[in-house]
Amino acid sequence: MDLNKLANALIPDESIRPLEYYEARYPERTLEKGAHVTRLAPSPTGFMHLGNLYVALANERIAHQSGGVFYLRIEDTDEKRKVEGAVEVIHASLKYFGVRFDEGADLCGEYGPYYQRQRAEIYHAYAKELIKKGLAYPCFCTEEDLEKTREHQTENKLLPGYYGEFAKCRNLTEEEIYANLAAGRPYVIRLRSQGNVDVKHTFHDEVKGDITITENNQDVVILKSDGIPTYHFAHAVDDHFMRTTLVIRGEEWLSSLPIHIELFKVLGFRLPKYGHNCSIQKMDDETRRKLSKRKDPEASLSFYREQGYHPTAVRTYMMTLLNSNFEEWMLKFPDKDLEEFKYSIGKMGKSGALFDILKLNDISKTQMAKLSEEEAYDFLKAWANEFGTAAQKAYFADKAYMLKVLALCMGVGGKKRRKDFICAKQAVETIGYFFDETFAPAYAYRFDNALVKKILLSFKNAYAYADDSAAWFDKVKAVAGEYGFATDMKAYKADPAAFFGNVSDVAEMLRIATTGLANTPDLWTIMQILGEERTLARLEKAAAAL
RNA sequence: GGCCUUAUGGUCAAGCGGUUAAGACGACGCCCUCUCACGGCGUAAACCCGGGUUCGAGUCCCGGUAAGGUCACCA
After folding, report:
1. What ipTM, to 2 d.p.?
2. Which residue, A23, A304, A432, A477, is most buried by CB atoms nearer than 10 A?
């Protein structure tokens, strides 16, 4: 059979250039020894998964830490899954979380194009080459044909797939092929696998360690009937010509690794190193499963933006899952930037971790506590502008006022910071009582209303804005004493029955009256921030409500 | 079902043949304290099961079991 003629008939792409051209066009990168070229290669589905960030971080850290290159490639070979504007989503969400690419789609770079659809010429050139060498062939099987063999294979407990005797088009005669072509039958190009499933090799995976893999014997399709490559083929061609040295990807790819190994071999490309990382899981009743895009809102990167999680917190949490010794380092050097951490691919977990929002919340609290009130202002304002209610947006109009609120709630100036804020949404909600528009108290006192009313009024009469914290508290105590509440905690503890309650109960009444809440930061300061007029008004309003 | 991978407290996990089996989150208790938050101290809580190898096994080997992944003209 004239393979050259066949190749031309099968792939009549005029733009193809000699193979040497591509090697010269995409030369080996000149990098320091030990530098890694890594990539993130998402599909433009418009949905960014937490797992995308997870794997992006691992690749990014390794590339940048080694003085290498980290780039973005868009795997848009599946027309059905493509979504308009998806690439913007990819860029925006990763940028928000501080993942920076050196080159790639919509960025500069010498190894592009970085959209697979724009690289058809290269795939065609190499698919054609394989045909010429007899290592690939056209397959005219229909979906029904394939379905039938699959049924037969499952019934007879045979290895499913297109291989050996089941590869019906593998040994089509020249006449048959041209007859099919003349009949206008659609076809795909399949690899003529040289592998044998009975042969096993041990393969060194950068994260899993030594694993045993079986040779591929599947005649996988490399070019779909529309001439677009499948993932496997595009992966081999792209990672070769983009000169990727290390591929860190999800473990769902591990089982197709034999295909990739064969493809690289058959194409004459040097195999990159691989690291297959585990996916983040979630407990679903009694069983674990992958974080699901459909079932779990926290699977989506947009969730963290909507909730207003600080990007550094999410990154930090990802890092704790990514490198087992990261958390210890972080505790030891709380003020160091996480880029100073020496990331090690060998320290990546071998089994999938359960997503733990409580842990994320804890990390988020300490992250928020690291912010100055100015930084917090900017962060919360940006969140409110995008996701907040109209009233919440208005909070930020009076910056000086907001800064005072934040300084109090974050414990700025104190020995240790408070950790009241988890994420922007929750933070903005918790400071709602500082703003009359959203101050909607549900007064819930633990004492008799008539008594509370008397105490409120009594304190209101005594209150003076100019009092300092100590003088203010003396007045609280005075009121407490007046109504039979203990002002001395020791005395109270010694004989609780002798009193209505103690000074903290009185403070609670005042707190509920002015903020609507039983738990808040320092009440004196809150009154200082609210101002004399509003403080008095709130006390009066609360008393009137009783 | 075949193949691959994994298995230490509720969760994330140290551990690489000899340890009282770290630490963090969470839970609980105490202290500090006008509440809360912070902080401090403390308690409970683990080597999947069965065989080997070895003076000695969480650690090495084999076999179970369980969990995860995968078996597309999707990535």
Report:
1. 0.95
2. A304
CA end-to-end distance (rounded Å), chain A: 98
CATH number of the A449-544 domain: 1.10.10.350
Q: Round to whole Å and give the CA distance between A252 and A246.
A: 17
- Measure the CA–CA gap between A57 and A459, rounded to whole angstroms: 56
Span CA (A214) to C1' (B51), Å: 29
Report, as residue numbers or ranges, the catalytic residues of A.
293
**CA–C1' nearest nucleotide, residue A351:** B6
Which nucleotides of strand B come closer than 7 angstroms to any CB of the protein?
A: 1-8, 10-15, 22-26, 34-39, 67-75
pTM of the predicted protein model: 0.93
- Using CA atoms, how far apart are residues A434 and A407, in angstroms rounded to an integer? 13
Exposed, middle or buried by CB within 10 Å (0-12, 13-18, 19+), for A327? middle
Tell me the domain boundaries of chain A. Answer: 3-15+121-277, 284-368, 373-434, 449-544
Residues 279-318 of A with CB under 7 A from strand B: 279, 281, 283, 287-290
Q: List, for residues A169-202, the tens digit of each pLDDT value.
A: 999 999 999 999 999 999 999 999 999 999 999 9
| Among chain A residues 375-414, those with CB within 7 Å of any atom of strand B | 411, 414
Q: A32 beta carbon < 7 A from strand B?
A: no
A255 touches strand B (CB under 7 A): yes
- Residue A328 beta carbon within 7 A of nucleic strand B: yes
Average pLDDT, chain A: 94
- pLDDT tens digits for range A37-71: 999 999 999 999 999 999 999 999 999 999 999 99
Print the SS3 string covering A422-480.
CCHHHHHHHCHHHCCCCCCCCCCCCCCHHHHHHHHHHHHHHCCCCCCHHHHHHHHHHHH
Q: Is any atom of nucleic acid chain B found less than 7 Å from the CB of residue A365?
A: yes
In the CATH scheme, what is the code of domain A284-368?
1.10.1160.10
At A496-513, the pLDDT tens digits run 788 888 999 999 999 999
> Does the pLDDT value for residue A397 go beyond 90?
yes
Torsion sign across C-alpha atoms A205, A207, A212, A217: negative
Is the minimum distance from the CB of A489 to strand B below 7 Å?
yes
CATH class of A3-15+121-277: alpha beta
Chain centre to alpha carbon of residue A292? 13
